[in-house]
C-alpha cells in the first residue's frame, strides 16, 4: 500500500539522490560520475533554501514508510507569452523519479496528476518540463507536447566550460 505526502526540508538527501539517479538512468552523453557528483553537490546547496522557503515543492510516494518515488515543482517568473498571454508565471516540473522496482505501476502518472493539480491550485495554467528519453512517453501520453526550446552552454572568454 503506497501513500503520498508533500516534500519537506527533511527530504533534501532524497531529492538529491532521486535527481542524480534520474540523470544517471538517462544515459545521456557527457553525464559521467564526476559530472553527476559535481551537479549533486551544487544542487544540494541550491535546493536546501528552496525547500525551506517552499519555492521548491512536490510530493513523495512511500511504500510502508520507504520513499519510492517523487516529483519536484516550482512556480517560475516568466513574462506573458502567447501560450499564457495573461499570466507572468509558469509551472515547472522537475525531478520526477520512480525507483526501478516500482516502475510501470502508474506512480509517475499519479505524481504528474498531483503536480498538475498543485500548480493549478497555485494559479498556474501553463507548465513546462524537460523530458528524458525514459520519461517522454509518459508525458506525451498525458498530453504534454514538445516545444521549440533550444539550449547552448555559454562560457566566458578564456573559460572552457569543462567544469560546469
Beta-strand content estimate: 15-25%
The amount of helix comes to: 25-40%
User: Termini separation (Å)?
Assistant: 41 Å
Question: Multimeric state of these chains?
Answer: single chain
Shape: globular
Low-confidence stretches: none
What does the average pLDDT come to?
Answer: 93
Question: Strands of the biggest beta sheet: in what spatial order?
Answer: 1-2-3-4-5
| SS elements, strand count | 5
Major sheet attributes:
5 strands, mixed
- The sequence of SSEs as H and E is EHHEEEHEH
Rg on CA atoms, Å: 16 Å
Structural class: alpha+beta
Total helical elements = 4
Give a short synopsis of this structure:
With 164 residues, the protein is α+β, with helices and mostly antiparallel strands. 34% of the residues lie in helices and 23% in strands. A five-stranded mixed β-sheet has the order 1-2-3-4-5, with helices on both faces.
